[in-house]
């Protein structure tokens, strides 16, 4: 596939000397969904702002659809739709006029059928004649998405698009995102709802302190770095873990009725067979066995904590 967004060693240092981006390189393929994860202040919004022409990078370069985001700003920006974190809308304007005006800003001809389709997708059609000030916070965020889509962009940036949105509206939004991807739109999103990134993103990019820590397909990241926990429920209460099981690094539940064993999800040898044989040799009766896969959130937190530990050292 072709990289529609190509970032090469992009840096951004503000006048006070703060380095928001420290030489970021990232290639985003056409038609994919990539989730950009990182703690507050990691550089996510700065990167998006630089690609959208809101912030001027101090080093490196980036192109969108082959157009340089600095020297070819107009052509690059015409390919981009942006849904910012902040809700900045004219409170007394009607929804339909707000979206129609945004399309006009990009020099696009009036297309009421397209706007109707977008508003219906976002469950805004019944609110088309309502004034912005009459809408809920979730509905206002949907208007932002409609504004970003009205000029038919090929690349859509979603900066915390579901912040403050209830569960039902959030689910509808992700369905819209999936439909857009199917139509060929490239989606770059930042989100604090990590479980959503795990469910919808083709790839995950983790950024911290202005540096990209990794970029990897979501499934591969889960397989490579994910851990599984085997929980063994016992028929009888244990006071302590038997010495014969000490090599397995087991955790005994507070009530003494279960043991937990953590292992690498992608490992060739999990040690489960030997563990169960050792438990049987001890004469311990089992009530149940179940496994749990570590979540992307746990992997993400682990990556950030590892980097913080390295910096401190």
From TrEMBL:
Transmembrane region(s): none
Domain ABC transporter: 5-234
Keyword entries, A-Z: ATP-binding, Nucleotide-binding, Transport
PROSITE patterns assigned to the protein according to its UniProt record, in alphabetical order: ABC_TRANSPORTER_1, ABC_TRANSPORTER_2
GO molecular function terms noted in the UniProt entry: ATP binding; ATP hydrolysis activity
Entry keyword Transport: yes
UniProt xrefs under SMART domains: AAA
Cited InterPro entries: AAA+_ATPase, ABC_transporter-like_ATP-bd, ABC_transporter-like_CS, ABC_transporter_ATP-binding, P-loop_NTPase
CDD domains the record matches: ABC_subfamily_A
Taxonomic superkingdom: Bacteria
Full protein name: ABC-2 type transport system ATP-binding protein
Organism, scientific name: Roseovarius nanhaiticus
